[in-house]
Design a protein that fits this description.
- The protein is mainly α and 331 residues long.
- 65% of the residues lie in helices and 2% in strands.
- The longest helix has 29 residues, at 158-186.
- Bound molecules: benzoyl coenzyme A (BYC).
- Benzoyl coenzyme A is lined by residues 49-50, 53-54, 57-58, 61, 88, 119, 121-122, 141-142, 145, 148, 209-213, 218-221, 224, 234, 284.
C-alpha cells in the first residue's frame, strides 16, 4: 500500500504563530495539504479521527445489508446487493489507506474500533428486519452519505478528497438501487407498499441523525470548517437532505413519519420536527440494538484474518530475501 511507508513517520511541528498563520493561508488559498507537508497536530488528529471513523462506518455498514444477501428476492437483486456490499468494503480500504498517510496504522485503527474508543456511524446499530429495509438503506442512508460526502471531495487534505471522488460515484449507484427497490415495493401489492412504508418509518429519523449533533453541540464543527475539512455544517447538510428527500417520498406515494414536516416559504426550506438526541447519544455510546453484535462481527473477522495477514507478511519477507540474494549474486 503506497501509504504504509508513512506509518510512524516523524510528524512533529513547531506550532508557533507564524507556522499556524502560514498553514491557514494555504488552506484559505484552497491549496491541498499532502501527506509529507507540515501540518498542525490538531489538523492531523482531526483527520485521523474522522477518516478512521469513516472507514469503520464503511466496513461495519457492510453487516446490516450483508445480512440480506442470501435472502434477496431474485438473482438480479442478489447481484446488485452483493456488488453494493463489496463496494462498501472497497470504500473502507481507500479510507484506511488515506488515514495511513497521516502516520496511523490499520492495526491501531482496528484496535480503537474494537475497544470502542473510535466511533462508527450510529445508523449501523439498527437492525435490518425486512427486505424493504435494503431499499430504505440505499435510498436514505446512501442518500445521506452522498449529501455529506460530495463536499468532502473538496476537503483540504488531498488523499481524503481524492478517495471521496470514487466513493461518491459508487454511492450514487447505491442510492438509485435503493430507490428502485422502494419504487417497486411502493407500486406493488398493498402488503408490499406497507413494507416500504414501515421501513421508511423506522429509517427516517436515524438517517437524519447521521449528520451528527446540532451545530451548537458539534465539538469539532467550527475548527473543521476553518480548516476546510468540512465545507458545510451538520445542520446545513441535514436540511439539504430533508429538502431533497421529501419530493422523492412524495413521488413514491409514501408518508414521512413527521407530523411537523412542512414547507416554509419564508425560509425556502422544509421545517421538520425535533430529533430525539437522547436516542442518538445512547446509540453513539454503544447502547443501540445492534452495537454489541456489530463489534463482535468485526472482531471475529479481524481474528479470522490473522493468518492471512501473517501469510502475506511472510511472503513479502521471502520475496525481499530472494531479491536481495539475486542482487548479491549479480554483484
Ligand atoms: N454516528 O463534533 P461533531 C456510509 C460523533 S458511512 C456516530 O459534529 P464531526 C455508508 C463525532 O464523531 C457514513 N458518531 O463531529 C456505509 C464526535 O465524536 P468524537 C459515515 C457521531 O466529526 C455503508 C461527536 O459525535 N460517514 O455512508 O465534526 C453503507 C461530536 O460530533 C455521529 C462519515 O463518516 C454519528 N452519526 O462531524 C452505506 C462521513 N455524528 O469523534 C452507507 C465523514 C457525530 O469526538 N464524517 N458523531 O468521539 C463526517 O462528516 C463527520 O465526522 C460527521 C460528524 C458529520 C459525521
Amino acid at each position: 500500500m503506497y501509504s504504509q511507508g508513512l506509518i510512524g513517520a516523524k510528524t512533529e511541528t513547531t506550532e508557533d504563530e507564524s507556522f499556524l498563520a502560514a498553514f491557514q493561508a494555504r488552506i484559505d488559498a484552497e491549496e491541498k495539504i499532502e501527506p509529507n507537508d507540515p501540518m498542525p497536530v490538531g489538523y492531523r488528529r482531526t483527520l485521523i479521527r474522522q477518516i478512521g471513523q469513516h472507514a469503520h462506518s464503511e466496513i461495519v455498514g457492510m453487516l446490516p445489508e450483508g445480512n440480506w444477501i442470501t435472502r434477496a428476492p431474485s438473482l438480479k437483486r442478489k447481484a446488485a446487493l452483493l456488488a453494493k456490499v463489496q463496494d462498501e468494503g472497497g470504500h473502507g480500504l481507500y479510507l484506511y489507506s488515506a488515514a495511513e498517510t497521516l502516520g496511523v496504522s490499520r492495526e491501531q485503527m482496528t484496535e480503537e474500533l474494537l475497544s470502542g474508543k473510535a466511533k462508527y456511524s450510529s445508523i449501523f446499530n439498527y437492525p435490518t428486519q425486512t427486505w424493504a429495509d435494503i431499499g430504505a438503506i440505499g435510498w436514505l442512508v446512501d442518500g445521506a452519505a452522498i449529501m455529506n460526502q460530495i463536499p468532502l471531495c473538496r476537503c483540504s487534505y488531498g488523499p481524503y478528497a481524492r478517495a471521496m471522488i470514487r466513493v461518491c460515484k459508487e454511492e450514487s449507484f447505491h442510492q438509485r438501487q435503493g430507490y428502485e427497490i422502494m419504487m417497486t415495493l411502493a407500486r406493488g401489492t398493498p402488503d408490499q407498499k406497507e413494507l416500504a412504508q414501515d421501513a421508511l418509518n423506522r429509517w427516517w429519523w436515524p438517517s437524519l441523525m447521521m449528520f451528527g449533533p446540532h451545530d451548537g453541540d458539534s465539538q469539532h464543527g467550527d475548527q473543521s470548517m476553518a480548516w476546510k475539512i468540512k465545507r458545510f455544517t451538520n445542520d446545513e447538510l441535514r436540511q439539504q437532505f430533508v429538502d431533497s428527500t421529501v419530493p422523492q417520498a412524495q413521488y413514491l406515494g409514501l408518508t414521512l413519519p413527521d407530523p411537523d414536516l412542512k414547507w416554509n416559504d419564508e425560509r425556502g426550506h422544509y421545517d421538520f420536527g425535533a430529533i430525539d438526541w437522547d436516542e442518538f447519544w445512547r446509540v453513539v455510546k454503544g447502547g443501540g440494538t445492534m452495537n454489541k453484535e456489530r463489534i463482535a462481527a468485526r472482531k471475529k473477522a479481524w481474528d479470522d484474518g490473522e493468518w492471512v495477514r501473517e501469510a502475506v507478511l511472510a511472503h513479502g519477507e521471502k520475496r525481499k530475501a530472494r531479491r536481495e540474494a539475486a542482487k548479491m549474486a549479480a554483484e
